[in-house]
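In response to reviewer comment 3 from the previous cycle, which asked for concrete evidence that the modeling workflow produces usable outputs, we include below a single protein chain processed end to end. The sequence was submitted unchanged, and the resulting structure tokens are shown without manual editing.
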Amino acid sequence: MRLFEYEAKQLFKENDIPVTEGILCTSPAEVRNAVNDLDGRGVLKVQILSGGRGKAGGIKVVESPDEAEDVAEDLFEAKIKGYPVEKILVDPVLNIRREYYLGVTIDRAKYKIVVIGSQTGGVDIEEFAKKNPKKVFKESFEIDEDMYSFEAYGIGLQMKFRKDKLKKLASIILGLHRAFKRYDCKLAEINPLVETEEGDLIAADARMSVYSDALFRQPELMEMDVEKRHEEGEMTPREKEARENGIPYLDLDGNIGMFPGGAGFGIMGNDFINYYGGKPANFMDSGGGPSPEKLAKMLELLDENPNVKAIFGARFGGISHCDDFAKGVIKFLKDHGLSKPMVMRMTGNNWEEGVRLFDEAKKESPELFERIEAHGIETPIEDIARRAVEMAKEAE
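The workflow returned the following structure tokens.
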């Protein structure tokens, strides 16, 4: 789960990492006052849970309070990388001499913590490392070990730091490594780490991503409500609603609603839809033996999503029975109806009974099931995926 820049800077500061003293604002008037307090100049940085804000127009340098208010009005009305702007961090303008990169993450191949440094900052470090491998320095550390000062100095020497500047950098490296471990991070990154004309080293930007499974031992992070976010962004209203109902759910950018029976079937279904030229509108997991109420909420989330043009359903009866699944879906259709066409397939435990129940319901209420197709094991799952893609194209 990712933190906002201002949150990451707060935690960096608690670990003795120098950061810019920005002012968090929620309105154009607050932005104006903040820039006025910063002697009339400032850097406006939208607070969204995504990288690449600068390229997307989310970071602006302003030269007066009037300009700041005008720019802020536009930013608050904009969507940056698909996210609405609700907060802007106003940072002071730094006298930049040079920019560096510093990060700590996990080397999944070696099961170690890796510290990464570069003499070039403000870049996509992964892309930069591919093109300039000799300009990126890495040191690995055991996960259960602390970093010693001499090790931090060693990284600084590789980055060509010397004397007082080396001492400052070593302190920042130690602080970043400490923060990474303290908050159960997946990534702690300073990009750029700025050297000012005055000789200071300052974290001009900050990024932190933490493991959601470790939040139970992170009260400071829980106070930030980070559990209400997903892996790399803020939750959409549908994602929040799904979580409140115990449904693992993620919005995607396609137009085919995914209504699976289990996470494995959901992943497979998403792959099939993509393979046959469609785009899933979501990922969702019903879990084993879902109740009729849970099935109803899953369908409701898809039916109310304006991006969904057709629904793909796939149920494997293992722990749960296909006939129970069919009963829950039929009850929802009779109680609420479904405005989107749906094609689904059942296999496994009691699939024949599930198909029979759908056929029977269709005879009783043909108008409700006019655009609903239910198939059994005799129909390959590939055909169901292709049919869902066709339905979505027909509905466009």
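The chain has 13 helices and 20 strands. We consider this sufficient to address the reviewer's concern, and the full set will be provided in the supplementary archive.
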